[in-house]
Amino acid sequence: MRQARVAALLAVLVVGLVTAGAAGRIARAQPGHGSLAGQLLVAAPGMRDPRFARTVIFMVRHDATGAMGVTVNRLIGQTPLAGLLQRLGVDPAGVSGSIRIHWGGPVEGPRGFVLHTADYASEGTIAASARFALTASPEVLRRIGLGQGPRRALFVLGYAGWAPGQLEAERERGDWVVAAPDEEVVFDDNHAGKWERALAQRKIDL
Q1: Which residues are CB-contacts of 120 (< 8 A; sequence separation ≥ 6)?
Q2: What is the rounded distance in angstroms from the CA atom of residue 204 to the CA atom of residue 139?
Q3: Which of 43, 45, 47, 165 is 20 to 30 A away from residue 150, measured at CA?
Q4: How many domains does the chain have?
Q5: In a domain, 30, yes or no
Q6: For residue 92, what are the contacts with CB-CB under 8 A and spacing of at least 6?
Q7: Quick check: 5 and 99 in contact, CB under 8 A?
Q8: Predicted pLDDT at 74
Q9: Taking the CA of residue 68 as centre, how many other CA atoms within 13 Å lie in the half-sphere pointing to its CB?
Q10: Which domain covers residue 156, as residue numbers?
Q11: Cα separation of 68 and 37, whole Å?
Q12: CA–CA gap between residue 47 and residue 52 (Å, rounded)
């Protein structure tokens, strides 16, 4: 069942995210006061939306226009990286290994993104913080397959998005808590334990 789901998603996979100011340069998140960009959004134990129960979301953007993040603890499966690049029309010469595929959220499910450490950047990279970035270009997948990519990375399909004021209302309702970004929580392969670990690191609002 899981492999069938992976095949169905890959059949319509698109990599790329259109963001204001991203064309031709590295886009940078512009968080204002109270922005959660670069933080972990962790589902509270009483989360009401079953789609997000026990999820850990890395927040890429949060400003007056809304918010966007990608879930880091929902593994779907894995696929050979060379085959994935072929589907995207990218030359897979020299590429080896497989890549794990994660559910990033319910918005634009066929769209793929790579959340990674900030030691890699290219056109289409969004610097969410000094330590983490998001790239929506097939080139980062090719670089990973060649051993030239970021130190750590997570490939996701889809993302979580909120309209202006929506996330703030959900937090007031008690659906989410905020935790400091932890590289081990974000990129570790122990997906089953990520939610508990992130919840234990939650920030206390004074």
Answers
A1: 133, 135, 140, 143, 149, 150, 151
A2: 39
A3: 43
A4: 1
A5: no
A6: 81, 82, 83, 85, 86, 142, 145
A7: no
A8: 95
A9: 18
A10: 2-18+38-200
A11: 9
A12: 7
The answer as to whether 121 is a domain residue is yes
Indicate the burial class of 168 (C-beta count within 10 angstroms; 0-12, 13-18, 19 or more): middle
CA 153 from chain center: how many Å? 9
**177 belongs to a structural domain:** yes
Neighbours of 148 (CB within 10 A): 10
Cα 200 to Cα 141: distance, rounded to the nearest angstrom: 32
**Residue 205, C-beta contacts closer than 8 angstroms, at least 6 positions apart:** none
pLDDT at 87: 87
Tokens 């004021």 sit on residue: 165
Give the gyration radius of the chain's Cα atoms: 16
> Which amino acid is it at 70?
V
Beta strand ranges found along 81-186 (DSSP E): 98-103, 107-117, 125-127, 132-135, 153-162, 176-179
Mean pLDDT in residue range 110-133: 91
| pLDDT score of 22 | 31
- Choose from 19-23, 32-36, 123-127, 149-153 the range with maximum mean pLDDT: 149-153
CATH code of the domain covering residue 178: 3.40.1740.10
Q: Taking Cα atoms as reference points, which of 161, 160, 164 lies closest to residue 64? A: 164
* pLDDT band at residue 124 using 50, 70 and 90 as cut-offs: confident
Using alpha carbons only, give the angle 37, 105, 161 rounded to the nearest 5 degrees. Answer: 50
Q: Is residue 148 over pLDDT 80? A: yes
7 assigned to some structural domain: yes
Residue 181 · residue 144 · CB < 8 Å: no
